[in-house]
Amino acid sequence: MVLPKRVARFNRVATNQVLKHIAGWAPGFAMVVHKGRKSGREFRTPVNVFRRPDGFVVALTYGPDADWVKNVLAADGCTLVSRGKNIEVRGAELVHDESRQAMPVPIRQALGLLNVHDFLLLKRE
């Protein structure tokens, strides 16, 4: 059960307004800076992000159809603001993984309860 659209709408209006102030420097969070596919406008989306040896992984708790995911995939990358640094990432790859191997063990278990199986892999430039 990926989180429902109404939760996504609430988070966009309420939760993200708080997270946008801490996501760029708090451990485990990042701000995804991406351009709209149609509008060309710059957007900033707070996400939970996990480091990997070659880059980062983001669990897609709202599924792969979120606009920010589509924008990053269309551009083949984005800028992550993490711990106060701008990090260019490319090679955006959507991965469906029932075992959630890209995630740390405790996170795997929590995502299993939410039935999350889709992830976005981002490679450092």
Structure write-up:
This protein is α+β, with helices and mostly antiparallel strands and 125 residues long. It has one domain: Roll (Pnp Oxidase, Chain A), CATH 2.30.110.10. The protein is built from three helices and seven strands, in the order H-E-E-E-E-H-E-E-H-E. It has a seven-stranded antiparallel sheet. The model has no long low-confidence stretch (mean pLDDT 87). This is Nitroreductase family deazaflavin-dependent oxidoreductase. It comes from Amycolatopsis nalaikhensis.
- Termini gap: 33 Å
Assigned CATH architecture: Roll
For the report, how would you describe the main beta sheet? 7 strands, antiparallel
Binned strand content: 35-45%
The low-confidence runs, each spanning 5 or more residues with pLDDT under 50, are: none
Please supply descriptive tags for the structure shown above:
7 strands; seven-stranded antiparallel sheet; about 25% helix; about 120 residues; alpha+beta; Pnp Oxidase, Chain A; 3 helices
